[in-house]
Fold this sequence. Notes:
By secondary structure, the protein is α/β, with parallel strands linked by helices. It has helices at 13-22, 36-42, 59-64, 84-90, 102-117, 120-128, 157-167, 183-186, 195-199, 221-226, 244-253, 273-276, 291-309; strands at residues 4-7, 24-26, 48-50, 71-73, 93-95, 149-153, 172-176, 190-191, 204-207, 231-235, 256-261, 280-282. The longest helix is centred in the last third of the chain and has 19 residues, at 291-309.
Amino acid sequence: MKPVVLVTRKLPDAVEDRLRQDYDPILNPEDALYSSEEIIERAKGADAILPCHTEQFTAGVIARLPESVRAIANFSVGYDHVDTEAAKARGLIVTNTPEVLSDATAELTMMLMLGAARRASEGERLVRTREWKDWSPSFMVGTQVTGKRLGILGFGRVGRVVAKRARGFDMEIHYNDLQRMPPELEEGAIYHETPEDLMHHCDFLTLHCVASPETTKLLNADLIALLPDGAIVVNASRGVVIDDDALIAALKSGKLTAAGLDVYNGEPNINPEYRQLSNVFLMPHIGSATKETRDAMGFRALDNLDAIFAGREPRDRVA
Length: 319
Ligand code: DGY
């Protein structure tokens, strides 16, 4: 008998094809967003669940999952939607999909940085609405990216790929993380011991930290005040790392020139004030949304499931 796997969202065709070969999948061809109650109900008889970050596995949900469920193999690198302590306590194995989405997320980060600096939202709107009337030396003047200082808060896999790409724009890389990286990972990036120290060196600041109680609202009014006037902030990690009220106030006052955001508190119901600001470049959480990366995420989740059901330690175990 093949293990039964509950898949919570529509996965790429190639991933579902491989899933069918080795497992008995419960699929979601409509890509419906299930409530926790529906997940618990649909998991009846399942040996494992393959969810996305859109499903919440709180301690309460984990406690009510059917006894048959042995593993949660996430289709995501972030796993802040899973209460890993509760999972451990129940003996559930939890995995994620690191590495495979670093390039796609770094690409999107560069797009946010460029889009915010060069006023992409405003420009696109002008062309689409036929409000574009003229060319002039003072029309749509933005901020140059080339040669500027880039601060990276969280120098993990994604942060380091962003640094590589940004070097192509001759940017000077500064970073903060819990620990200083070895020279081969730093590749000349300048370490700052605290987020506060880092802020002074950021013409651009990009956030690549994991969501945790420690990083919740990390970018708050105090930290923003330490940024150089006119800095640009980019976030493609998780919305919780930003205090929205503080960021919005800084974008309104001119303390910050612009922001590029792909992730939000409460997404998709984001703080409505962002929609009113012309100096924010807004994307709908698509950091990993390339065909190559979504296939790779699915295959990585399946590699983890294969290991679990073969009695081996999965490569990407997080609980
Ligand atoms: C991730 O993998 O964490 C992305 O945010 C998509 O879920």
